[in-house]
Amino acid sequence: MRPGPCLLLLLLLSTSAAARDGSSGRALQLRTLVAPSRPGEVPPLELRASAGLTTLVQFDSSLQAGAVELTEQGGLVQLARLGDGSLVVALTRNLAPGEQVPFTVALEPGAEPLRFVVVTRREAVDLRVQVVRARHSDGEDAAEHVARELLAGPETRPMLALPQAARKRDTWDARAQVQSVVWMGPRLFAIVAVWNQKRGTAPWRLVQARLRTTLADGVLLEWPARLLPGPVRVRRQLHVLTSPLPEGASGLEVALDAEDSPGSFQPLPPATMDESP
Length: 277
Hints:
2 helices; 19 strands; nine-stranded mixed β-sheet; mainly beta
């Protein structure tokens, strides 16, 4: 897939359009997304695009010919693979609220492709998105042990309580809520409760918890936390999410995802509120 004349023209005009867009109050973002290990089981990665601007998507490995598959044939989205293996995304018009254009990217032959959706957001547009694969961090075995101890302990175990405006996600028949947070050095542990409002139904299925923070250089980093589910008790289930926080990061937020719909990011207490046992 090579850049066509229209897309090359958009690339040339994108800088001046970005300046105009920034003056309108919409945030121009640089983001790094850590790809999920099982992309078919979680919501797709979201790219925020705007007509008149181009979004550059970079990967930690070069894209091969045929790696990108766009199912939408209406011409709303133009995709072009550049010589360095990155991808340029351009919209011919802004998408309406709730409107999405999906596409997939195969990073390796035979591997499950990454799923993306292109959307338009009033509050922000992506200028550059780096997509990287998760790396194993030190202390994961010890972190899993702590998480399972939290799940096995009594629910009245003393924890760091969230503020009154505790962050939660509601649907018409279910609810998911971060109930408490513990910081152990740079690592976060959070207990998430999921339950159904209707009797006789299983708890709402939490498939992923994503974290977001701002790095020292201003780049937004978004990544999936490690999520360990506890036993189902009647209509309720507890989960523990855990992850180390990158050095120099600030303003940690969490989003709770269902299989077919991503949650919105909400703030968590800062690491300075460390009252670990």
